[in-house]
Amino acid sequence: xxxxxxxxxxxxxxxxxxxxxxxxxxxxxxxxxxxxxxxxxxxxxxxxxxxxxxxxxxxxxxxxxxxxxxxxx
Length: 73
Fold this sequence. Notes:
This protein has a domain at 23-73. Helices cover 23% and strands 37% of the residues. The chain has one helix at residues 20-36; strands at 2-7, 10-16, 44-48, 55-60, 65-67.
């Protein structure tokens, strides 16, 4: 998995080669950052499968993570 951040309309890779434990830690950290930044322009983050290049989940501001394969938060 890789963690990406949207900066000025373009996705940039922040972390690459994440295992399951690192994905959980990254998701928790991004959720905290989203809550802190909610009063400003919220950052957009996403987790992408490196095997399929498919977005697995995304996060924007205080809304938390949306899991694409589940269609839920």
